[in-house]
Amino acid sequence: MKPENWEQVERLYHDALERESESRAAFLDEASEGNEELRREVAALLAYDEKAASFIEAPALDVAAKALASDPKAAEQLESLVASVVAHQIGTYRLLSTLGAGGMGEVHLAFDTRLERKVALKLLSVDLTTDDERVRRFRQEALTASALNHPNIITVYEIGEWEDRAFIATEYVEGVTLRTRMRGRRLPLTGAVDIALQIAGALAAAHRHGIVHRDIKPENVMVRPDGLVKVLDFGIAKYAESARTRESKQSWIRTETGVVMGTTAYMSPEQARGQEVDARTDIWSLGVILYEMVTRRLPFAGKTPTDRVAAILEREPEPISKLRRGIPAELERIVNRALAKNRNERYAQAADLAADLRKLRAALGEERPPRFALPVPARILPALSRPRATVALAALSLMIIALTVAGLVYSRRDTGSTAVNSLAILPLVNVSGSAETEYLSDGITESLINDLSQLSSLRVLARSTVFRYKGRDADPLKVGRELGVEAVLTGRVEQRGDTLVVQADLVKVVDGSQLWGGRFNRRQSDVLAVQEEVSREIAGKLRPRLSGEEQRRLTKHHTENAEAYQLYLNGRFYWEKRTPEGLNRAIEYFREAIARDPNYALAYAGLADSYALLGVFHLPPGETFPKAREAALNALRIDDTLAEAHAALGHIKQQYEYDWAGAEREYKRAIELNPNYANAHHFYALYLTMMGRFDEGLAEIRRAQELEPFSLFIHANVGAVLSQARGYDEAISHLKKVLEMNPNFDHARSLLGFAYRQKGMYEEAISEYKKRAVPVSGGSGGELGLAYALSGRRNEALKELDKLQELSKQRYVAPYNRAIIYAGLGDKDNALQWLERAYEDRSTRLVWIRLDPGLDKLRSEPRFAELLRRMNLTA
Amino acid sequence: MPTPESHEVTQLLLAWSAGDRAALDRLIPLVHAELHTLAKRFMRRERAGHTLQTTALINEAYMRLIDAQEVRWQNRAHFFAIAARLMRQILVDFARERGYQKRGGAARRVELDEALVVSPGRNEDLVALDEALNALAEVDARKSRVVELRFFGGLNLEETAEALKISPDTVRRDWRLAKSWLLRRLSEGGQDEA
Questions:
Q1: What pairing do the DSSP bridges indicate for beta strands A165-171 and A117-124?
Q2: Given an 8 Å threshold on Cβ–Cβ distance, is A63 in contact with B183?
Q3: What 3-state DSSP class applies to A577?
Q4: Which positions of A are catalytic?
Q5: pTM of the model
Q6: Which of A7, A13, A49, A55 to mutate to test the interface with B (most CBs of B within 10 A)?
Q7: Which among A94, A505, A806, B177 has most CB atoms closer than 10 A?
Q8: Which residue of B has its CA nearest to A459?
Q9: Are A718 and A702 in contact (CB under 8 A)?
């Protein structure tokens, strides 16, 4: 943010530099014309001028090279790093190679450095920065289609902007476009029908949600080697179309540019006439594609776009039976119906077209099994359609494996000697060799990696590392040694009739001993019914071995969208950091998760917690808590039984609304709903402590600690509760232990300082406060000043007030900080005035007002009692 | 000696200075690849006891990529501006990577301090500088660009002035204030940790 007086600062700075250094102070006093803030800002910068003389004067690369000259290993690393940044980077995406270029812009294969996966990155040549309404609709459609989570619709990961250019990052499909596929060997009829069926399935799903593609053509269809089809670019066509129309004002058919020409062949008559289009335009385009796949010719050919348009509008295509032998009459009928010029005579819905194609496909026989053809009729969502069952089955086996491995890791940890701290999950081998199980075996592997990666004490190698071993039939122990892990998980997936068999083994690398082996054999028909039961049973067995929080992560799924789930976990990871950067990233992740699955209540709860903590630690609460409340209420609207959402709301009621009874109600409800949710116990513990109910508070924080033994904040806050309960010595020894493990953990340092201060050990307190990495921060900057004040070092306390004043120019400083320093100095007027401002801001530390010994000197003041009353507290 | 692509690079550079944004996108990978090759070679030379100079490196990239007669000085400045951005990315990534490796995964910062020459007793580093530079960009984008060009791109006052289309005197003033601003931020800490 640009300070308002930046120009003035700049001018005065340079003017001052023109004077001798002795006379600068006097000059500044005068030139700042009583603007104290301005004077201090300039003076602070001037103070660094001399020191900065040689700062960064030598160019960076020279510096690096010199620094590394003595360190060959580091220099090699720089070389390889430079090599790894092969092309330039767009946001978090590193471009690897160019996949192709089209009317909408070029497409690159890129690597998402944040989530460590390959993506297809399309850089749009159109401008997304103008016309909010259009952009909004475009994003919405693209994301909505993606959120359908349909196997034949490509997943959109992100729509963003980089240096004024819009880009879309999507799932990377290793395959070719249907255009390329059609140029190759002629498709067998079954193959053509399989592809059309999958496209119809994608369209049916999209149409059900009111999304018309408008630009179905072979370039927008990807075909994987295993036959799976993915339809690309939902939402984009409409956007591009309106962009073009706006530019040219003419009907876009007549625009003689390559962009449009490529499309005319698949255009429906109504599109060609420039009329409003609906879902039936996609059915026409699919008809054209089917015609072309079967006959290798376009139904409506012509040398120029105008000729083609004329053919579309007027000519009947040559019957496909005349162009290829052995065409079933039914296929011809389907093509003709899709290509009816009057849209009322076409299939009314893609689902109907899909149904006809499916019947035809069955009649064509089992030359190859229909793969991945998953269109679901619009009106019925069968509870047990085959693919759904298979996916559910896979999910179940996966959960069992994940839980078991997690359990082992933990149980082994307990015994110490055979602990597993690092693990490589090798790609599960697809024994049946069919493409469908291949998809499942990769999917299971990937999800296992994702799930087990969430165990904080276990290092699980990334997908990119282990997938190098796919299909290599390598010796697992050798691989384990190569990768430097302690254990390797191997497995195989086999489909036998309607049964899926998953076998998994966990082997110790050092001696090849088997730590665990399991075989999961499930019939598809009963799998959905038993899924919950079985997972509960297994979870029950493992409960003593797993910490509650991690068990919850592995068992409870609040979204069907794996992407959203992963984003949520990333969000929680960053949320735990509590830094402004961490919380902002968490917010980004939660928002992305919500974009993937708008009904993902858990992500809303995460969002609420993130905004709340931004307000607790870093920003004016008035800016963040309303957002937190909105997110928490959204979460509850979606799922009223979500513990996380109730806990988040309780926290807001406590910190921001001073609704004490309401807060307690929410916490209790959260704990009732999920007794294993550590943060509910954590927040509740602080609440109880605040209320002076120390014994209960201590019990709750201990419970939180048991549930989440690796949370630094919970760990440190045990010390906070002990201190407030006046158990200073115990608090000090606990916090020292926390700091032994994490010497840079400022929050624990502050708490230790507090405990010392309470014991009257001011020097120790001051020394702890000063050891903090960020000694003066917006959230907790007043403590050092208070310690100085209490120890009688008045000048130093006043200096701390100045520092806070300085700091407040750069960032929000909670008024409470200044209140306690003034209180420590015995300046009641100023202290009460700053407390008043703290109340106006809803400074979150104000909730401790009843206990804070720093304020003891104020307690007899009527204004203080009045403040307590306004906060619904009694003295 | 110009490489086979030099004609292409020249054309792209000319197109870009004439306002064609798309040309820049095609230009960057070419420049980056070249810089990467050269940086590797320079590193080896440095280890063998030769002196490395950023400007020399970028100059060499320029000579190899550009058909110099066709390109006016101003375009050359444009080229350097891209190179500076890319050098920053390469070096900061490296420092970050090093930081992670040294401290076993914790997000600690690497110290490339000695030659950075900052106030005594403090260890500043490229990652922190990069962050501070981002912060500066929010206050004053031009000053942040000046630092990028000078520090990461190795440009002198005049070259920087050309690249940014401002006077050398403005560059000098921006540079001085920016350095104080950055050093202050690095010394006084720019983050909260609660």
A1: antiparallel
A2: no
A3: coil
A4: 215
A5: 0.39
A6: A55
A7: B177
A8: B105
A9: yes
